Amino acid sequence: MKNKALADQIRCRTPLWDFPGDVVRLDVSINGQDYYGNYPMNMVDALSTLRLAPLCGPIQGGTRVNIYGTGMNSSVPQEASVIVKFGTSYSQQVDKSNIESITYSDDDYHEELHLSDKLLKIAETNYPDVDDKQAVEKYSGAITPNITEMFNFDAPDVRGQGGVVSVLIGENVNISITDHDRNSSTYKQKIDSYIECAYYDTSDLEFYFYRDPIVTKLEPNSGLTSGGTTVDISGAWFAELPMYGLFPFCRFGGIVVRGRYISTTRIQCNSPQTDQSNAVKIEVSLNAFDWVDTGHDFGYYEKPILNDIRPRYGNIAGGTEVWLKGAKFSNATNGLKTVMCRFTQVNPKSIGAEEADDDAVADDDDFNAPIRFMPAYYVDQDTMKCASPSGFGGGDKVWVDLTFNGVDYTDNKFEFNYYAFYGSFPKSAPYDATNQFIQVRGKGFHQDMAILCILDNVEMAPLAVHYNLIKCPMIVDKEKRRRLAHDKENKQAHGFSENDFGSVSFEIKLEGVKQSFGNFHYYRQCVIDDVTPLIAPNDGKGAIYVIGRGFRDDFENSRLGCRIGNTLAHAQLLDSNTIRCTINNELPLIEEGESLLVTVALNTYSWAASDFSMLPYGITAMYPNMGPIGQSTNILVTGKGFDNDLRENGRCKFGTEDHYIIVEANVLDNEHLICKSPAEQFALPEGASEIISVPFAIAFQEDLYFPFTQSGEKYRMYRQPRLDAVTPNEVHVGRLSELYVTARDDAPFW
Asked: Is the pTM of this model over 0.85?
């Protein structure tokens, strides 16, 4: 209206029209009453966007977006421009050659996005309704812009973070304008131009820009042709935004699978099934359209089949070579760190009663199975091998299976049993021993194991095999035993004792693996001529002297020992004819008429023949266990072994080794004796209380043999109280009454 110019243009908005393709007449009125013009107008499909695929893309742009909508190819004239606008700053003209008319299908749309309707439920909340099989237009030529180059990103904004923009469709509207360019030939003249009209009512759709993820690690990098291997991918910029259809995806070769979002630095994908045993490229994406090369390949292989393992047993030290027999083993796996045998402990609760250790048994819910992995090596297409690991105990059972990638394991697994050797006993024996055997103690032995005893390099079957014990022959053969005896003079000529028959090696071969137990020595059995005394305390430090011939402890693996009944005692070699046995374990008290055999052995196992038996004595109780100082109180001692040949020497001791008083004992029978508490007082430090408890013991032999018992009895010495009064001083006959006795202040009750 400037310079009194007259208006020559008006703009009108068309009404909603139900029938696209109609040609209508357009009339214009200034006053609402008088119309003129009669201009023809073609009614076409409204411009609208109904769906996008994908709903998101990387910030660097270049994503080809499929737009589903209407009116994009309905312009009159046909060549009229249609535009697509991402946000407010970028628009591009629609290439109508990339528009096709289709019948819309939800299933096809979801398949295109590789997402289910459930996953798209949030994103589709604001989508306009589209009927299945509705006729729509699909434009496949829209390209997202590089938004990193469109803004200054002044602080605090950060370049490259991405975000959401609206997606609009519109057209270039022709207008007539005055040219104000002074250098133009049409300066101040009317010229034709256009303006972009992106109609905000054409769409509620949005597009999300994200930052491309980066990948730093991928494992495993191989899996089964049957698929299902979980591949763990680490890196940065992973995301999941259901509102914008943003989910992690992986592509194995040309096969797309949806991943699982774990965190911004980690996703997981399950490998798809394939028919080829080869390596394919792995790519990742957040929209299943724009892919990022991980720089890793994924190798496919057929699942190996495990049919058996040999051996089924191994030492706890580990290192047993386990051979795996099966099929579909490949030398392509040779040297890969992920090719491993897995050893998983079986819950001890499932082990039989003989084998289970009650302290180690755990409920299934509480049992945390220890697992060990060992490298496996290719031998041929049917054989692989690995070494058993250490870290398990004797008797432990483990499952063994095989993996090529550290994730997928063979369907079959086989039991492997660990055994342990704790040692052998004895380490020596008489050269002519009979009915004796070498005990090999351990854990985890079984009857079906291939076990051989090897003595002097001669292999022999064991006499018996138990879960924790192997019994081996002690003598190789009778002929060798006679030969050893015959060579005695020759050994003497070479510096050996006449009682020494030399040493031989001893080993166990279990499942082909030898375990050495050092040398086994042969000697001449000793002879017992006398034992004294034959009476001793059942506990304490009683000494017994064994007199005989051939006593020695100077040969290899000697282990001198005494045995009284079934109780071991400490043995000390005094000379070749004398052994002193010290009772350091409590002997059982026996019934009258019984006795305990006394014998010795140079190996604490092969006991020499003996005609001597010992009678132990000991205390079980005493009454009373206290008495007044200075008074001889009769004490009844109960026990066993009192009626012996030395009963006349019976005595009782009150006190310690340094301060004591000894009194005579009167034996009543084998189980009872009486002695009196000492009348004299103990020598005590000045000012010490006279009321004390002292150790009590009995003895029969001479002090040379340490005869006193040490069973822990105590006798309390106290000062006798003196009575002062009794209240009341009379009571009724035939009735129970309470009496109160009062002691004097200078001699009170204690």
From this structure: no
